[in-house]
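Regression check, NPW case 493:
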Amino acid sequence: MEYLVSAEEMRRADHCVIEEYGVPSLVLMERAALASVELMEREGFDLSRVLVVSGSGNNGGDGFAMARILYLKGIEAELWFVGNPDHLSKEAALQKKICENYGMKFVRNLPAGEYTTIVDAVFGSGLSREVKGSYREVIESINRHPAKVFAVDIPSGISSDDGSVQGTAVRAAVTGALAFRKLGHVLYPGTEYAGRTFLLDIGITKEGFKGQFPRVQAPDRGIFSLLPTRKAFGNKGTFGKACLMAGSRNMAGAAYLSGKAAAITGTGLVRVVTEGCNREILQTLFPEAVLTTEEMLSEETLVNALSWADAAGIGPGLSTGEAAEKELACVLTQAKIPLVLDADALNILSKHPDWLKKGDTPKILTPHMGEMVRLSGHSMEELKQKPLELAAAYAKEHEVILVLKDARTVVTDGERIVLNTTGNNGMATGGSGDVLTGIITGLLAQGMAPFEAAVSGVYLHGLAGDRAAENTGVRGMLSTDLLKELPGVLKEG
Ligand SMILES: NC(=O)C1=CN([C@@H]2O[C@H](COP(=O)(O)OP(=O)(O)OC[C@H]3O[C@@H](n4cnc5c(N)ncnc54)[C@H](OP(=O)(O)O)[C@@H]3O)[C@@H](O)[C@H]2O)[C@@H](O)CC1
Ligand SMILES: Nc1ncnc2c1ncn2[C@@H]1O[C@H](COP(=O)(O)OP(=O)(O)O)[C@@H](O)[C@H]1O
Ligand SMILES: [K+]
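Current build output:
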């Protein structure tokens, strides 16, 4: 997994590498500048005429060093120093002086239309307050200018900690994230302001954390190595049994999507437990499933289904009526297997929060933001502001694994926090959450540990969404396209 750092965690690593390992900060700065220039070249920036806009901190220092490297390559690179000269950091002051010694041109404003590329080196991870006054004007003038913008480390004005816009922020085409991606590169709206973001190695590695690692990680292709292995001599009994309790009258699709997703994930057998009216539909759409259907599902039927399964998912399209309430209460009380609770199961839980205490099997809750509002009592605004903290606090308090679904989904058990970066807005379409429930239930049924199953499920679900976006497009894709792409995604590992 990849570490996603806060400004403070980045500062700690910087400090350790410079002060404890003894790497001079100017060496790091030179590497940052060289890697940034290389990235601009690789990304096809038109370097006919470049303006580097530098502030007075080390982000500005990176900018001065980049300007000098470009200038010495024969590129027309000019500088606009917009910082407070009395607050220049030692390194930035030295880099500025070097540019002056070379006789480079400093400008005092941003004439329209004269530059092909602007380098934004006003603020980096040291942004400490809202951007106001002349800094605001500088950033707005950069945004108005037609030149393509490259942001050093993070667009100026974006908080490294949560991706928020601190008053105003630079809109970059490309961002070179130094050493680690900050949370602000991944969380919205920071992600959009950063444009295409690339990680640049400048010699600060995880050794800089000295064993005190950042709190948040993002899953990467390493996830594939966690997936259940398939023994050559295995049979459908050994590849796990998943039970999906889903669908109600007029909601057969939710049972189909979640059940089919569990099957595609590699589960040996999938049982769908649903209302009798869905029987024919499911037998036609999903002949691979074992069906358990009754007009009114009895407690005995539910208990039998649970004792057959290795994991169960409950909630997609379940409805919230009395029968559904009874079903959920029975499952929470009787289940001895890991459970995924989604959609209507969560809506019912919001009315009976104490039900979470029933039973002692591992529980994975997968609310979207609206469901989380009802479940947690926090407002949407609070959740949007602090999704990581509030998700972790809920998971800890209720001793569950929480998958808080949004454009960036958070998975947490209260201690570990994972922020998923796969997926796209094409997935904001009915039924895509049902597919996720099926994937996670399928992975659990094959014996994955609950936290790993939740993280892997969210990652694979997002990758399926990304493949669907490539092949079908974000507008036209449907949740059935996620099912179509999932086998190929699983084959990539
Ligand atoms: N450590 C290293 O050697 C390495 C660091 N690296 C680079 O350093 C960057 C971090 O550098 P940093 O810590 O100096 O902070 P930085 O982002 O330049 O900002 C601080 C300046 O901005 C100012 N300021 C802040 N907010 C403001 C506001 N709202 N409105 C107005 N002013 C505001 C603040 O002013 P002051 O508070 O002093 O008035 C100060 O002058 C990092 O992103 C990476 O690019 C790499 O070169 C690798 C090696
Ligand atoms: N803009 C987006 N970027 C990435 N993923 C998204 C975006 N919008 C929605 N998703 C994902 O799509 C899924 C939608 O789930 P949910 O709202 O429960 O759908 P439904 O209830 O229709 O099944 C979640 O996994 C969510 O993370
Ligand atoms: K910047």
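Comparison notes: The mean pLDDT is 96. The longest strand covers residues 269-275. No diff flagged against the previous build.
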